[in-house]
Amino acid sequence: METLPEVPEAPLRPFKLAHQVVSLTGISFDRRTVIGMVELTIVPNNENLRLIRLNAKQLRIYSVVLNDVCQAEFHYFDPFQNICNSEPHSRSMDVFSKCHLNAATITDPDENNGELVIEVPPDGYSLIQEGRGLRIRIEFSAENPKSGMHFVIPATSPDDENGQVSSAHMYTNCYENSSRLWFPCVDSFADPCTWRLEFTVDKNLTAVSCGELVEVIMTPDLRRKTFHYTVSTPVCAPNIALAVGPFEIYVDPHMHEVTHFCLPGMLPLLKNTVRYLHEAFEFFEETLSTRYPFSCYKQVFVDELDTDISAYATMTIASVNLLHSIAIIDQTYVSRTFMSRAVAEQFFGCFITSHHWSDTWLAKGIAEYLCGLYSRKCFGNNEYREWVQSELARVVKYEEQYGGIILDCSQPPAPLPVSSTNPAAAASKQEEIVHYFPIKSLHTLSPKYVEAMRRKAHLVIRMLEHRIGQELLIQVFNKQLALATNAAGTKIGAGLWSQLLISTNIFIKAIFTVTGKNMSVFMDQWVRTGGHAKFSLTSVFNRKRNTIELEIRQDFVNQLGVRKYNGPLLVQLQELDGTFKHTLQIENTLVKSDITCHSKSRRNKKKKIPLCTGEEVDMDLSAMDDSPVLWIRLDPEMILLRDLIIEQPDFQWQYQLRHERDVTAQFQAIQALQKYPTNATRLALTDTIESESCFYKVRCQAAHSLTKVANQMVASWSGPPAMLNIFRKFFGSFSAPHIIKLNNFSNFQLYFLQKAIPVAMAGLRTSHGICPPEVMRFLFDLFKYNENSRNHYTDAYYRAALVEALGETLTPVVSVAMHGTQITTDSLSTDAKLVLDEVTRLLNMEKHLPSYRCMVSVSCLKVIRKLQKFGHLPSLPHIYRSYAEYGIFLDLRLAAMECLVDFVKVDGRSEDLEHLITLLETDPDPAARHGLAQLLIDNPPFTRESRRFVLDKPNLVERLWKTINTLSGDTKLRCDIVDLYYALYGKKRPSCMQAHENQHFYQDLMKENSNSSNSFKKIDKLDRAGSESKERHKPAMVTIKRTATEAFEVGDEIIQLERSEEIQVMDEPINVQSYDSETRINTMDDIPGESQHMSKRVKTELYAEDDNTTMALDVGESTRYESSYDEAKFKADGSVKKKKKKDKKKHKHKHKHKHNKDKDKEKDRERKDKDRKDPQISRLQAREAATPETLSSADSSNSNSNPPLGLN
């Protein structure tokens, strides 16, 4: 096979990037500005280079100079400042998606595009010689950047003058390839070069950047100093970063090349957090048989970072929230995993980068895979397998909700063999995966998609591991690293820097070189095609033949995100004589297979059963039927991307839970047993909770499942509430079991169990649907007797779990009298009052002695929200708004925002939603903005299907639409708001927009009619309107103006418009469709037989005039108006009621409507009698007197009434 790397299909850039200098001399914290200069050294591919395209955003460019002598003209254009410029009136996601991709393509460096276009002047033609370097010097500044650079300037008290200096810092936080936000560059993963970096800062600050620190030079005035860094290994611009602040510095005692930086006062936490990081370096170097590719490594912990950690070349910027003391248990797992992943990304992601952005799945997946191997070494195989299972479940959930994830969309998969029975099946399947956002650019992808793509990439690398073996896979990685290390030591002229890049095709060839296996089909199946497999398994035992008859179905292939799988599938049977594996070939949606059992049923004989681990265990076989099969597993090693539905008897699930050693199988059994509320299930779950040999997460999950089983067995349950005796056995005092022991969390298994059991018990319910009194007393005793003074570890997580348990005990108010009455302390139930008292006490205590990461306060806020939702407290948002303000700790802010989002969905008004959108757009903390966006997306205030008229307003559409069209700098937030827009309105044009336009149309109609004369000479206007049918509102205006009788209802008033002229109507039918909506008005010739019947019907359409008034329109007897919006009812706050018409036929008349005149007079007389009884008639007459030409009184309207005219 060829060894040369494949070149992307995108046009080649007419130059190569050799070296770049970045110099920032004016970093001002007061003004939040940066002034600097870059100098790019490029090598032209030909002498005809006339345009140089670079990337630069939100920067002010002052000058461009070539080789220090030639001033060049330049042009700047950012299409993201007005994405839908060509479609200004559209509000649909389909239109936006096309414009969004177009804007990203126009500035995509991989397509030889960019925002900054430099024209080489005629004087500079002589400077361009093929193969010779050309230096481009660009001076620029950035003022108040929206993204890319973040300044953290904490609020200080007036008496603390030095506070701002001591803690203010700034750093770059670029989403994917967004280095263009802070310096001009070629912002591509595929253009590595060497770097020289210079940063001038105040003398009390430290600048941390990529590469080796060469020197620090004081300025002549001794007030500032300049940090000089060099990156001798070629790296790409997206992997360059900077952090400036008054950092405390800690050199790793185990590896002196590693340095850690943190904010003042956090050094003790830093030392504890990073004390095992050197082990990650040693593990990766040993596993990959390759030395760390750079000469140094720096970790900087900063505040308000919108991700937990971001890896750059030789440097990682991490969130300060990852720091923890030695007393913290839970955070240790999280922080150590994140930091090890950042180290893995130094090898794949920073040193070896992607050939094209669509190849980023490789770097992300390999780094995640290596991180998983290290986690398995650190935390054990059970933790690792549970993590893989949860990653797989998340990918499946995302794909079934939004559609399949295509890891590499740069080229379609090879066409599958066409079957003779269904030749179109292979071609049609790929077309089904259509997302509401373009997947062909990183700058248009949903952040949820990017996160799910990283998870899926890791799972695909794991699948490769099972295909070719771990040892050979590591050899493939080693080969790529060896080639890259060799290339990094050469100059650009050698032409080897392309070996620093990896792509899907290069990876396929590397696997073939090492193993001799061609993985092209595998890549087409799992990388270039989206979706996962979904199997359902049923089995029947044939006693005569001693076989198990398996039936594996793929009935879900038409479901979103699911596709048909063809290939091998492993089935593992646990029989009485051991574990047996069988590989089935899956070719159709239904596969039947008869598997001969190796053992015979012997229910009454006791014998040790050999397991797959080699151990032999005693089992009670009395629950078995005639089958010798104890349990069945499908794809036990999680080799496939799949979802499973396995049906087997409850006793088989119980055997699997008790005796299967694989934690993923135990989790499956626990999940399945929730459907079998029997005493045997109860016993199996109880034994699992008590078993110290079980993985702690399995025991915690079993506790939650036992709650659900107990609630289904409430009528037949005997003994104390579930898990009460277990908890007292483990944690109760010897002499008084109801009093808990002093906290001792040295046994981590029991610690996690001690947190989980109270939360699980709080979900128990009596036959009346309330929490048992014994459980309430038990929980309050836990608060009462909690004592942590002699514990080495903090009990913050434990106390937060207890508060969460209090929330789980709550049930909705059942008294009918409570609803609609004012809620007071007297109306609270006893239990609710006790819960509220405890939560209030803890919240007040937290203000003076906050727990780690304010965990207890977070749980308290969620409990208060539950009290509100269940009717125990008035539903008010004020407490959440105060906790959501900038300056509060991030976790607490996000919890308050979560409560606000839920409040808006259940009880909110427009101003509450507007407050959240304002926070989303303007909050200074990017982490809070992104977190709030995710909360709104996951729990939207309304959707297109379930519209809430109180919240679904046109001004919200316009606000969100403007934001996604003009939010140029912050790609992540823009894509977040695109996700929110889709969650609220779907792909099509929002329904409220058409109603809003109709409302304005009728308001304009009233004004026009009030100013028009009684002669109604507007036939020429109808002709003009027909020629202007492309305009948005004309079609409806043409049709309605030809109605004879119109009545507008404003409040209690009815205003009638009557016309006495006879109009000759054109005979041709007219079909008019309004812009971008489904509203149609069709007309047909009169059907004589139906004329009398149709003329008796009068339809009324209601439209919202404003938030407080309504407007009614009586359309003529033969009028039919059809709308695409099917609304349930009309509200006076701006919502719209429209009635669908079954019959679309219209009447056209060339003659006068004399045959209906008598009936029309009767109707007008009835209307006149009704108006006389109306107490508002005096106001009506006063208004009619104001416009005598068009408005008539009730009496005169009767005498001047005219038969209705047919609509054309």
UniProtKB/TrEMBL annotation:
Residues 1132-1208 are annotated as: Disordered. The keyword Transcription regulation applies. GO terms for molecular function: chromatin binding; metallopeptidase activity; RNA polymerase II general transcription initiation factor activity; transcription cis-regulatory region binding; zinc ion binding. This is Transcription initiation factor TFIID subunit 2. Residues 1137-1156 have a biased composition (Basic residues). Residues 531-649 form the Transcription initiation factor TFIID subunit 2 Ig-like domain. It comes from the Eukaryota. Residues 650-1007 form the Transcription initiation factor TFIID subunit 2 TPR repeats domain. It comes from Drosophila albomicans (Fruit fly). It is found in: Nucleus. Keywords: Nucleus, Transcription, Transcription regulation. Residues 278-526 form the Peptidase M1 membrane alanine aminopeptidase domain. Residues 1192-1202 have a biased composition (Low complexity). Belongs to the TAF2 family. GO terms for cellular component: transcription factor TFIID complex. InterPro entries: Aminopeptidase_N-like_N_sf, ARM-type_fold, Ig-like_TAF2, Peptidase_M1_dom, Peptidase_M4/M1_CTD_sf, TAF2, TPR_TAF2_C. CDD domains: M1_like_TAF2 (cd09839). Residues 1157-1176 have a biased composition (Basic and acidic residues). The gene is LOC117569422. GO terms for biological process: RNA polymerase II preinitiation complex assembly.
